[in-house]
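Input record, target 12 of the design panel.
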């Protein structure tokens, strides 16, 4: 009886989102002559309703709660007839704050922002649809295969190795790059702990590309330093279109004390294997997105971390090298369980959280990442090995 009541409650809950002319499968809503699908990686829709011939309401729910307010959505929509529809996206989390501006993809490459009205728990916009499917998402879609192809391409370069760190909880591959130099000092770069944080991902690609280009600086850097790159640590969350968490409902960037997640343990074990072979960690960074561009650091006075001025000098140099961009440094070391705190506490070296704004111009993200990588290399080269 209890099970029947639970099932009845489930049906009644979702019935408020569905009209008589709506047919829903696991990943498709059929509403008259309109088809809305979400059967692809990074997609997310939790319910749909055709209010009338011209208005569609989508329900977007998080993977679990409590959760940061990062409502993610992605879907394809088409219609047998050309028409203009009003899309209404409603969020069901506790806060329900709109974060990501809706965008549609054009020409398979360019994402075009859509004019919209953002309210506390919903966003509205008009959309022209027809027989050709239109892809809508909160941010640009970068899926797991994109990382694989990028890493395999870079691995064609000398001194760059691509391999698997391991597999995720749901058995998806977690790839890694090792840029191997001649010394024993290592820089660790991490990305995509939080699935929707695409601007952080957009920074990873040019940052790492800059570390393997054919230049005098790179050649000098590789005489001392190695780089470990794990750009897509939460492939399950990416594939599922999660707002923030892993497939088990955990924020990876709060798991660097307890290591309850398979993904964080894989990174920990890889770094320990580097140390066991005589390697020395000298710097780490993980890439994220937030409301504006900023860099969370350990500050210059954090106990036991050296060289004390390393990151300050790096980011000062970055500021001097970029135009029309404010390098915001925020010392933060009270948040427990984040990656940079783990690196600082465990290895006594600096780590930063590299955050790009959700709406930062994509060309600026690319430009800043290029300069950030270049200034990082030069800053590290200026520090004698004995000071780490």
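The sequence produced for target 12 reads:
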């Amino acid at each position: 009886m209890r099970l029947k009541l639970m099932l009845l409650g489930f049906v009644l809950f979702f019935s408020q989102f569905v009209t008589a002319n709506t047919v829903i499968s696991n990943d498709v809503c059929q509403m008259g002559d309109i088809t809305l699908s979400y059967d692809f990686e990074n997609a997310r829709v939790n319910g749909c309703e055709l209010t009338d011939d011209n208005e569609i309401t989508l329900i977007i729910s998080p993977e679990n709660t409590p959760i940061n307010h990062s409502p993610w959505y992605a879907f394809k929509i088409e219609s047998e007839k050309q028409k203009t529809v009003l899309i209404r996206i409603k969020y069901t989390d506790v806060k329900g704050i709109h974060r990501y501006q809706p965008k549609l993809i054009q020409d398979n490459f360019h994402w075009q922002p859509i004019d919209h009205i953002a309210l506390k728990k919903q966003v509205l916009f008009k959309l022209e649809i027809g027989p050709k499917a239109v892809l809508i998402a909160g941010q640009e879609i970068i899926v797991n295969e994109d990382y694989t192809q990028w890493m395999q391409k870079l691995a064609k370069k000398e001194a760059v190795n691509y391999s698997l760190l391991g597999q995720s909880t749901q058995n998806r591959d977690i790839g890694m790059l090792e840029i191997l130099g001649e010394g024993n000092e290592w820089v660790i770069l991490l990305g995509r702990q939080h699935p929707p944080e695409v601007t952080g991902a957009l920074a990873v690609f040019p940052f790492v590309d800059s570390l393997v280009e054919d230049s005098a600086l790179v050649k000098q850097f590789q005489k001392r330093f190695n780089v470990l790159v794990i750009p897509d640590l939460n492939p399950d969350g990416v594939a599922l279109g999660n707002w923030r968490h892993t497939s088990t409902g955990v924020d990876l960037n709060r798991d660097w004390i307890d290591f309850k997640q398979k993904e964080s343990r894989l990174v920990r074990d890889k770094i320990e294997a580097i140390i066991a072979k005589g390697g020395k960690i000298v710097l780490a960074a993980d890439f994220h997105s937030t409301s504006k561009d900023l860099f969370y650091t350990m500050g210059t006075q954090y106990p036991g971390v050296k060289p004390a001025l390393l990151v300050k000098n790096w980011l000062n140099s970055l500021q001097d090298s970029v135009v029309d961009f404010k390098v915001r440094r925020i010392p933060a070391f009270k948040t427990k369980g984040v990656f940079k705190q783990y690196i600082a506490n465990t290895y006594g070296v600096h780590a930063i959280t590299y955050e790009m704004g959700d709406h930062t111009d994509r060309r600026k993200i690319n430009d800043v990442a290029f300069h950030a990588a270049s200034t990082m290399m030069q800053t590290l080269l200026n520090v004698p090995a004995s000071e780490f």
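DSSP finds nine helices and 20 strands in the chain.
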